[in-house]
Amino acid sequence: MTAAVLGALAVLALLDATSFGTLLIPVWLLLAPGRLRVSRVLLFLGIVAAAYFAIGLALLAGAMPLFDRYRHLFETDGFRYVQLVVGVVLFAASYLLDSERARARGAERAARGDGRLRAWRTRAVGDDADGGSTAALAGLALTAVAIEVASMLPYLAGIGIIAAEGPGWPGDALVLLGYCLVMIAPALVLTLGRLLGRAALDAPLRRLDGWLTVHAQSMTAWVIGIVGFLLAAQAANELWFATAA
Fold first, then answer.
1. 211 vs 28, 32, 190, 205, 221, CA distance in Å?
2. Single pTM value for the model
């Protein structure tokens, strides 16, 4: 794989790293009152990464034979025009998603102090002896993945790139593993910072938690817009610039 392809995968993985399950929930867990239970946060992130890795392997197993069979169609101008249209539509849709009404709903979510949510967090992040539950933590992680996976366009785009440009098995699996690790890297950095400087990071993490809650819809719109731009730019390059060169 070329450096450009690996760079594109890294960008997509970092976009995935800003999602609900890979950043917002870990920050929410890090803000739980009482003693910081790093092992619980790491377990959550490990389950999320493992779930995405398993889903990615399943997609690659189906995508690679399909891609090999229809590779010639993917290289036609007709397919490139379809890709261009899809990219433009996604880019336009991102503006519709990032509306004033969506921002207002996010502000309402941030302002609500739902006691049931706090109790759920205590149950998920607490030790078993303190009423915590490993099953609740695993359920939270898997639920987040199940809700997000179909809408995580960067991840699906990354799978497509690995299927098309990857070195083949088992190299594709290693690239996918690296992708999943990059996805949880920002949350791991925040966890380490929280462990080493709890007092110093408390206020910034709370501001980040509030900002993410308010702007979750906007972040989704930005991700969709970026993916749309990348798809359209690649199609335009193949249609008009690569052939001219």
1. 12, 17, 15, 10, 15
2. 0.63
